[in-house]
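Sample pair:
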Amino acid sequence: MDLNRFKLIRKENKYTQQAFAELLGVPTTTADIERGKTKIPGFVVAQLMKLFNINPLWLFGQSEEKYLAPREPQISVMPKVITVSEFQSENIVLVNQKAAAGYPHNIHDTGWYQQLPAFAIPLPEFRNATYRGFQVEGDSMLPNIRPNEWVIGRAVASIADISDNRVCVIVLQDSVLVKKIKKLSNQQLQLISYNVDYPDIVVGLRQVQELWQVTSKISFGIEENSNSYLLKELQASMQELKSQLKSFPKVN
């Protein structure tokens, strides 16, 4: 053990040897530990971890990382209101674009949900969980999710339960977004669009009121294949290139 590091913790936190001993549950003072006459007990190491977030490897001179990595807070992002049918079974509430504008501000209002349509899907994939439907606004998730399509999301209990690169409906304090998510180390979420024209958004975990992992979508216009958006972009780029070539002077 690096005795200087043990002593440093005490001095940095402005404790006398006696007061530090009382805090850690050590008889008399910590003088014998600091002199190396007494080995540091395991319960003292545990107290240093609990009270000061000290990395035990740093304490024993085997790491330069003084503090343990902060634990991801268990922030609840469960739905604030759940609606049931007349048969007392959960149904899927549909939140269209207009309703989504007021959703964050009415998230606790049970009466507000009564104005929204709801239905049930009698498929095994939609059992044993809470689901909600959201209409997508804008083209930030093209080509995978088109404007005005509906996505069905499964409720997530806490942010720790969701993996990176999942598409989610994120209910913030003032907006509802559909994005791919990535958890950052500093208690933040990175919200990523499929459409590269849209920059990433970074939000604090505590800004998230609800989180719904997208499991399926309701799509219309199925005659268009999944590459139609990319094909249109390619055609537009080729047309632009042709126009630029025409503007070049001819070489004899």
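Helices lie at 3-12, 17-24, 31-35, 42-52, 56-59, 97-102, 110-113, 228-246.
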